[in-house]
Write a structure and sequence with these properties.
The chain has about 450 residues and is an alpha/beta fold. It has helices spanning about 20-30, 45-55, 70-80, 115-125, 145-155, 175-180, 210-220, 245-260, 275-280, 290-300, 325-340, 345-350, 365-375, 420-440, and strands at about 10, 35-40, 60-70, 85-90, 100-105, 135-140, 160-165, 185-190, 225, 235, 265-270, 285-290, 305-310, 315, 320-325, 355-360, 385, 390-395, 395-405, 410-415.
Amino acid sequence: MRYFGSSGIRGIYGEKITQELAFNLGRAICMTGKKDIAVARDTRISGELLEQSLFSGLSGCSISSFGIIPTPALCFGTRLLKKDAGVMITASHNPSEYNGFKLWNNEGRAYSRKQEEEVEGILSSKKFISGGGNKSIEEHDVSREYLDAIESFVSLSGKMKVMIDSGNGAAFRISPLLLKRYNYDFLSINDTPDGRFPKRNPEPTASNLMQTSALSRQNNCDICFCHDGDADRVIPIDDKGNTVNFDKFMVFVIRGMMEETGIKRVVTTVDASSLVDDYLEDAKVFRTKVGDVFVANKCEEANSCIGAEPAGVFIFPKFGLWPDGIFASAKTLNFLEEEKRKLSEILAEMPDYFFERNKLFCPEDKKDIIMEEIESAVPEDAELLTIDGLRARLNEHTVLIRPSGTEPIIRINVEAKSKMILDEKMKHWYDIVKKAIGEAK
């Protein structure tokens, strides 16, 4: 049985995610030879019960309990304290009824698929061996060390008006403390830890951030940073009170890192916009499968200055090989201070690309043969990438066709430089996928 998805183990609490699973996960981690473990959680109501069950399963291990902190702080603390592994109890941006677990190695990098398979094998076998002996649980707050580290990497003047929307999630304390250190005039909203997420859905999308946008506009903020449940992501609201076009914002941060480091190698995923290639003409762009572990691994391999996913995820290799929405906020302020311009003005200079998503039902056992048929329809002059589905870049559009890893569907994403081309090409690829599915039945 496969427990891990593209970002840890995740599901609805009481269904896939249970206290029994947490207990068995602890036992499985011990059986892989890990004996010194850091554990943290986000604000979800089910988090404390899952944490206690995990502790019970980690029999014979030494445990550092970080309490409620963001995922990047857990990763940082795991590396700082030289732990064998870190466990974050979170469902990230998913709604309140979800929870899950994400495992990190001693570098603070997400578990590789090979490491996940080792844990899955033990969970599936149900052949657990007790760790035996007494375990120690030591509470350790790594917040100060984490903020100290950010401060040592990023210099800021504190001259903008900033808002923080922690979404009642794990960033409720750390993000405001960071701005306070730099003496910013800032407002902090939704900063009461509440795993019911009463003020907004934890996924920071434009539709979920309408109230935050209005507040930012009313208070004449230069920028507002919005986090998900565990703050591994960040989505800004600009000086006009609009949730940013994330593709453009991603390019802005990437460009800033390229200029700061002099390194022109950047990493992103197959689902990222072609704007990255077109606007950053001097960049060497590496694309990976969707998932921060793939981005982190490629960042190290390519010695890149940054890794980014088009969902508010940034990895800064010189700081740590984990997704870090809080460090990304600090770097964004850094780049804006250097530009001495408003974010809305900077992003307006970038071209607008048009994007549409679609999907079709596809039997699980037919996905491979259907993808082969679709690939045969790709023109020979296309720039083709097949590491995660099929990404074909052509003259005026790019298409990404990926079978879902969790549902019996095939997703179709098309990006184009005009609405007319987008409509035409979406119909073209939709028909190709539909035909391939029909012929495979």
